[in-house]
Amino acid sequence: MKFRNVIVCLLGIFTFVLTCQSKELKLDTQDFAPYSYLENGRVSGPAASIINQICAEMGMKCELNLLSWTRAQYNVRKGKSNGLFVLAKNEEREKWLYFSVPIFQAEYGIFVRESDTMKFTDISQLKGYAVGVYGPSNTSKQLELIHKKVPEMKIDMRPDDIAGFNKLFHGRNDAVFSNRDVGLMIIKSLKLKGIRYAGAYKKTLYYVGFSKKTTDENVVKEFNNAYMKLYKNGTIKTILHTYDMTPLGLNEGD
Questions:
Q1: Cis ω for the linkage preceding 102 (within 30 of 0)
Q2: How far apart are CA 122 and CA 87, in angstroms?
């Protein structure tokens, strides 16, 4: 009986510690405008605004940090942070991350110079093209799948999105494969004249990913419940309209 009481006591202490730890989340992101970016020294953008509102709804303190994507992933894998935002699902990531409900719907597609008359509708149109892409990333993984079907296409992988668009602007590659909104933001902010969006390849969903190593799954469920509450009462819609973005329909999630 004494042994059983000790076990119950230890379980109670463990639950108490876990509950206390769950009242603070450290989440890392990258410079990924228009979703997340640094403004006046703070992580800003629609993703940050939504996450901060969810944390307030949960009564939880959340620390948001903007780092290189390599460093952000390293921190989460090493247990220095609880999660990442925003990112797409893939098989490898699902091995070590829990995923929130989908927060954004995005679109991968092809950018070309205006002198190129291509209207992108089929991957066979990329034969002979040198296509820039940011990677390693989920975006580059998608382009690698295309490359298996179109081996005549060359992949020009770069460590950030901007490098690919600069090369396209200067005529050093033929196209860029990118998130549409991210690409349009880069073109606008860098004033890269003569580049246009040629068409969509596929749509994808973006999530917040939580480390299975450092984050209790119940916290992720609480996070998702808070998001759903804010979605239904119109808070998410209000936040996104501030950024001229459209909320993801509830029936569009997976």
A1: no
A2: 25
Global confidence as pTM: 0.80
The answer to whether the beta carbons of residues 240 and 247 sit under 8 Å apart is yes
- At the topology level, CATH places domain 22-104+216-252 in D-Maltodextrin-Binding Protein; domain 2 (3.40.190)
Higher per-residue confidence, 17 vs 219:
219
In the predicted model, what is the mean pLDDT of residues 182-199? 96
Confidence band of 3 (pLDDT split at 50, 70, 90): very low
Beta bridge partners of 38: 43
Mention every residue, 6+ apart, whose C-beta is less than 8 A from residue 197: 109, 110, 111, 180, 183, 184
CA atoms within 13 A of residue 4's CA, in its CB half-sphere? 1
Start-end of CATH 3.40.190.10 domains in the chain: 22-104+216-252, 107-204
The domain defined by 107-204 folds into D-Maltodextrin-Binding Protein; domain 2 (3.40.190)
